Amino acid sequence: MNEPQSEAFFEEQRQLMVDEQIAARGIRDERVLAAMRQVPRHRFVPDFVLEQAYDDGPLPIGWDQTISQPYIVAYMTEILNIRAGDRVLEVGTGSGYQCAVLAELTAEVFSIEMVEPLYIAARERLRTLGYRNIHFRHGDGSRGWPEAAPFDKIIVTAAAGHVPAPLIEQLAEGGRLIVPVGQFSQTLMLGEKQHGIFQTSETIPVRFVPLVEGKEKKQRGQD
Ligand code: SAH
């Protein structure tokens, strides 16, 4: 057994996470599995939950926000069907973990975070880890990123009351969008744009922190 909290220990934990939580539950896309084997999740969580970095659940990242359960990250990534040349938009950078998984799979990722300290920390973390293909923005991601649109894939990692209209507009023809919709009971909705028509279908029940629309949070408690 490797020494607890050594890099070898975390590496071993990560491979077990992929085998037991992700592949065992039916994620089959080899590229997604490889990305999940690669990204060091323990570098995305606060020290006080470091030992739980590869556990089967979400974890707190401060500012009342969470890093999603590994299986959900893999599920959302697989369903997006990311191809190497896709332009991908993420709304809700959070820790930057999902963003790193996306950046393993495609050439260009755009990620927006509303809570400024999380945006700063994630940008720093991903740069330190060597990711050079991610563009970061601090702001309200429900408005999308019009200057960088259209996007082949859009992923929202906070729960919305409805699919924000700007995101539908900024989705490319043939593109896919995945977003949790609902308040207490949420459904992960998959949206597709074909011949200019946007249609959604339900996938699985999920639980995400809410998408906050129309304001830019700078400090805890500031509305
Ligand atoms: N993808 C993240 C998990 C994010 S939790 C990860 O891998 O760690 C959801 C995040 O969405 C939180 O950080 C929250 O601050 C952010 N958020 C909520 N509403 C938002 C909005 N309108 N625009 C951008 N980010 C938002």
Tell me about this structure.
- With 223 residues, the chain is of the alpha/beta class.
- It has 6 helices and 9 strands; from the N terminus they run H-H-E-E-H-E-H-E-H-E-E-H-E-E-E.
- It has a 7-stranded mixed sheet with strand order 5-4-3-6-7-8-9. It has a two-stranded antiparallel sheet with strand order 1-2.
- Strand 3 (87-91), helix 4 and strand 4 (108-113) form a beta-alpha-beta unit.
- The longest helix is centred in the N-terminal third of the chain and has 17 residues, at 7-23.
- It is globular.
- The protein starts with 6 loop residues before the first helix and ends in a 17-residue tail after the last strand.
- The model is unreliable at 217-223 (pLDDT under 50).
- The structure holds S-adenosyl-L-homocysteine.
- S-adenosyl-L-homocysteine binds next to strand 2, helix 4 and strand 4.
Structural class: alpha/beta
Tell me the span between the first and last alpha carbons.
48 Å
Give the uncertain stretches in residue-range form. 217-223
Strand order of the largest sheet: 5-4-3-6-7-8-9
Proportion of residues in helical segments: 25-40%
Q: How large is the count of helical segments?
A: 6
The set of bound ligands, ions and cofactors reads: S-adenosyl-L-homocysteine
Q: What's the main sheet like?
A: 7 strands, mixed
Order of helices and strands: HHEEHEHEHEEHEEE
**How many runs of DSSP E, i.e. beta strands?**
9
Query: What is the residue-mean pLDDT, rounded to a whole number?
Result: 94
- What percentage of the residues does DSSP assign to strands (E)? 25-35%
Report the C-alpha radius of gyration, rounded: 17 Å
Based on Cα principal axes, name the global outline: globular
